Sequence to fold (187 residues):
Amino acid sequence: MLNEWKQKRDAMNSYDRTAKIYDMRYSEEQNAKIAVALEDFRIDDEAVILDAGCGTGLLFSHITECARLIVGIDTSLNLLKQAKAKAKGHSNIAIVRADADHAPFIVETFTHAFAFTLLQNVPQPPATLEEIKRVTRSKALFIVTGLKKHFTLGGFTLLIASAQLEIRSLRTNDRLKDYVVTCQKCL
Fold:
């Protein structure tokens, strides 16, 4: 357990240190993943979305106009400051400093969940997926990414399947550093 908290603290501190250059360094890559993911994903005006590991809020501009509520969570205070700036002027975006493994939400709060660039940064990805499932409704739609240098394709699909998430599409190409999976919470 102490090792897990150390890993989380190290990741948080690393993102806090690099927050000011995060968008410059990663926005092109992140926006490419988001664009690929949203090709298979429908969001309606009643959607209540969890953006687990929201970082600087790069996802917000892609979905703000079509969702009722977006809640971005992250452990990095400095990343959240940037996310808060992106959320300014949007009454349907809330920013919460929280650990995705211990989300401060009641059961079945969200209709959709996004976990971009999250699973390779947590000590127990299966536990993280279980917590995200806990706070999502039955048949909730998920988009989850997995960094190719951290997960094999087989290992990543097994992780998703073992979390009892039904894979609807798996996208990858030579330009993406991640696997992009659209899936649905099983009953």
Observations:
- Residues 2-38 form the longest helix (37 residues).
- The two ends are 30 Å apart (CA to CA).
